[in-house]
Amino acid sequence: MEHNSTKYKIKFFLIFAAPTVVIFITVMLIPFLYGFVMSFTDTNGIASTYQWIGLNNYITVIHDKAFWDSLVVTVKYVIACVILTNLLAFIIGYLLTSGIRGQNFLRASFFTPNLLGGIVLGLVWRFIFQNALVYVGNTLNLPIFKNSWLADPTKALWSLIIVTVWQLSGYMMIIYVAGFMSISQDVLEAADIDGCNYWQKITRVEAPLMVPSFVICLFLTLSKCFMVYDINISLTKGEPFGSTILLSYKIYKEAFNNLNYGTGQTEAFFLFLIIAVISIVQVYAGKKMEVEQ
Amino acid sequence: MKHSKSIRSPGKTVASIILWILLIVFVSPFVIVVINSLKSNAEIMSNPLKITSNPTFDNYVTAFNTMNYPSALLNTILISVVSVVLIIITSAMTAYFVARSHTKTGKVIFYFLVASMMIPFQAVMIPLVTIYGNLGLLNSRLTLIYLYVGFGCGMGMFIFHGFINSSIPLSLEEAAMIDGAGLLQTFFWIVFPLLKPVIATLAVLDVLWIWNDYLLPSLVLTLPWQQTLPLSTYAFSGQMSVNFGPLIAALILTIVPVLIIYLFLQKYIVKGIVAGAVKS
Predict the structure, then answer these.
(1) DSSP 3-state assignment of A117?
(2) Is residue A52 part of a domain?
(3) Interface residue B129 vs chain A (CB under 8 A)
(4) Domain count across chain A
């Protein structure tokens, strides 16, 4: 058969896969490997010469307080976002599938923030936090809103969390809705006949059936939040006093503002490790679930 | 059907009330922004919640003229559309090779592309700027499109590969081959049209990503006339740090095209998100 000839296979490869392979190697593979090389040098991106400095960048990063501060803030941010996003999305998804009127309209509206980028959303909310809420605080005499949230380190972090949750919960809600709709009505009826009350039905019947959707959303929010950048620069810009510099922004600043490409790349390597671990655990969890089903 | 719907009926009214209240909270930032876009800066500062009695479009005019709106919109459309079309074609073809060639090369390609999906952009952005900068390839929209294809082909191949393996019957292709169709003909006439549902999913996910992306274009495109909407909006926000009116109008000008598209393609977008999430 012609199909198995080497010539045929080479032709097949050249026409169908070769362009992608070339693009992939030049866009992902070479930069990724080159990044490793860079992390062992003191390159600054401008000077054409650089020195090999071994593990110095790694030592610098590990001893850099600013890096740890950024990592801690990022972890706080991620934990809060993951919990609140999934809680809110789950609740909205649950309520939306209870057969109420206008559910398509509601679903579409809750999703809307995800059509817009972090830059636009951050700037919209910047106005809300800096002006609208301050005005409300002063008019209604609410101390919590009297000063801009963006001027206080803790509240600025919370404002980042609020905007992220506000955006992502609309996205995750879509996935939860799909999960709820795939639960067979027979199962719910059976639960009714067996005398389950409202609460038992949610916790014992529906929640376990929602585990796959939950796992998908959990990992999606985790990696999205660890990599967040746009909302960070448009809403807080790392302020006040550099207290809200999340990891991506820290990497950017280290490389392109401080012109330390080597240490910036080393920090990026740590972000890569975090994302890689999340992805591997996700694949593993996904496989395990498939077996159990 | 009627019976099944009533299963949760005791909570229906409560559910409705909670959701509508939540919706008001959700959309209020947009409403406030729209209200203020029609006011002068003095009015905005004195009361950001008040609806003005004499609306003006001055802010829109200023924003439209200073943020290079037409050129930014055109760039965004151009870059998104071309990138997404190329991602779809290249990753569908690669997925077809991986699924049908039964070669070791195919397997290697598959594992490399899938593994690349866990590399965050930040891990390659610094070397990317260094390499492409040294080659003099930055400041080009073509380079940006090329990079998007590189970053998008992993997930694209993965989703297409799953679909080809599970839903495209080999017998169709064999019949076409027997009838004398070549590889390209078989692929583009027989297989590609059958990939429609996946193409829609991928188009939605990739357009949302590329249309709104900021970090990558901010590194590649630095000349004003090349900028996409997120870039020009952000640059504009720097110039207008105290002048809220035009900035807010700029935000709305950025939002409107997306909302118009959403109005028409809502169904596909929601479907695409679900399909994409479940597959990857």
Answers:
(1) coil
(2) no
(3) yes
(4) 1
Identify whether residues B49 and B89 lie together within a single domain.
Answer: no
Smallest CA–CA separation between A28 and chain B, in Å? Answer: 7
Q: Count of domains in chain B?
A: 2
Q: Which residue of B17, B47, B124, B205 to mutate against A (max A Cβ within 10 Å)? A: B124
Q: Is residue B273 part of a domain?
A: no
**Co-location of B121 and B233 in the same domain:** yes
The predicted pLDDT at position B83 comes to: 96
Whether the pLDDT of residue B117 is over 50: the answer is yes
Is the same domain home to B81 and B139? yes
Q: Do B130 and A114 touch (CB under 8 A)?
A: no
The two tokens of residue B258 are: 């997306």
Which residues form the domain of A147?
Answer: 64-292
Q: Is B255 inside a domain boundary?
A: no
- A255 contact residues in B (CB cutoff 8 A): 125-126, 129
- String of b and e for B160-188 (b: at least 16 CB within 10 Å)? bbebbeeebeeeebeebbeeebebeebbe
* Confidence check: pLDDT of B169 > 50: yes
* Mean pLDDT in consecutive groups of 10 residues from the start of chain A, 293 residues: 74 90 94 89 75 83 88 94 94 87 86 88 90 86 82 91 94 89 82 82 82 87 91 89 90 88 89 89 77 55
* ipTM value greater than 0.90: no
Q: Which two tokens stand for residue B137?
A: 């390839």
Same domain, B222 and B163: yes
B15 lies in the same domain as B73:
no
**Among candidate residues B144, B112, B111, the one with its CA nearest the CA of residue B125:** B144
CA dist B145 and B151 (Å) reads 10
Give residues 187 to 226 of B whose Cβ lies within 8 Å of A.
187, 208, 211-215, 219
Instruction: Assess if residue B135 is contained within a domain.
Output: yes
Do B56 and B38 form a contact (C-beta atoms < 8 A)? yes
pTM score of the predicted model: 0.87
Q: Which domain holds residue B13?
A: 2-59
- Which of B15-24, B235-244, B246-255 comes out lowest in average pLDDT? B235-244
Out of A43, A98, A280, name the one closest to residue B8 (CB): A98
Among A178-187, B65-74, B183-192, the least confident range: A178-187
Q: What is the CATH number of the domain that holds A145?
A: 1.10.3720.10
Tell me if B130 and A113 make a contact (CB, 8 A cut-off): no
Mean pLDDT is highest, among A24-38, B39-53, B191-205, B256-270, for A24-38
> What pLDDT does A272 receive?
92
Instruction: Measure the CA–CA gap between B257 and B61, rounded to whole angstroms.
Output: 17
A159 chain-B contacts, CB cut-off 8 A: none
Contact yes or no for B252/A94 (Cβ under 8 A):
no
Residue A115 lies in a domain: yes
Q: Which of B42, B59, B76 is the last residue of a domain?
A: B59
